[in-house]
Amino acid sequence: MFASYSVSSPLKTRKFRVAPLWQSGHTWTMSEENSYHYQVIRRAIDAIDQADHPLSLDDLAQDMGFSPTHFQRIFSAWVGVSPKKYQQYLTLEHAKTLLRDRFTVLDVAQSVGLSGTSRLHDLFIRWEGMSPGAFAKGGDTTLIREGWFESPFGDMIVMGTDRGICGIAFASEMGRDGARADLVQRWPNARFVHDVSHLRPWVDAFIGQSGTVELHLIGSQLQLKVWEALLNIPSGYVTTYSEIAHRIDSPRAVRAVGTAVGRNPISWIIPCHRALRKSGALGGYHWGLPVKRALLAFEGARADVS
Q: Are 90 and 44 in contact (CB under 8 A)?
């Protein structure tokens, strides 16, 4: 079962079915342990990269100062499931494996990965697209609410207008100040106020995969098309920048598509981390490649188990 969302604009309203954030019956909840678990996974990625040979689970745990059993316990708590081969999801080669085994053609994305999805909670995502010019007409009267939340990938800042979430950024690589400043500069004329309570229902809905999330996307026509295409990539699967370009009928605009993917303001919900280069290279990720690898590991492990 895919989540549903509608697109509203002055010209049209459409409804779609989009891929869930992950494929598992597990309902994720935020806790104080999330940050600790992510930091362990982040250290594991560094240990794997720095090793001059493939690390076994025992070697990886030892390099990090843990027993294998304790590392397994941390990984299982982080991802919510217990896969057999933990370290394989954290290597650079994992992206190439996904591209080989779980590449999805976006035209048929909705027929991929449907088994067992009856266990999923229903998450309804509705988004309204708006051009930067139309948004700017609101001037300094436009109010954006912001707040910090814990996630499986470290601290994240969420911003939203009255119409929905307009930004999600991860702070683990650039710090809280850097992540916030990155989003704020996108809407220089808006007024920002701290208001966690306004945002929490939307955050709880997409974290728990149940309820309704409203998104307010501010971008060009090309950006909105690219972000819509990203919503069709199932969790645990990947696609390429060139495939997205074909999907939006702009096969020669691969570079522009890559730029639009990189400018996605709502990380995780709009899964720009699932876009790779044709070679299997990760490409870029605005919030840091370690976060992209952690996202792909998180979703890959869940998909394998389910």
A: yes
Our measurement of the distance from residue 7's CA atom to the centroid of its chain's CA atoms, rounded to an integer in Å, reads 19
Question: What does DSSP assign to residue 278?
Answer: T
Catalytic residues: 272
Q: Which amino acid is at 40?
A: V
128-158: pLDDT as tens digits: 888 877 777 765 668 999 999 988 898 999 9
Cα separations (Å) of 173 from 157, 178, 243?
13, 9, 28
Residues in the chain: 306
> What totals of helices (H) and strands (E) does the chain contain, helices first?
11, 10
pTM to 2 decimals?
Answer: 0.81
Torsional sign, CA 242, 248, 250, 256: negative
C-alpha dist (Å) from residue 260 to 181, 219, 226, 285: 19, 9, 7, 12
pLDDT tens digit sequence for 214-232: 899 988 889 999 998 898 8
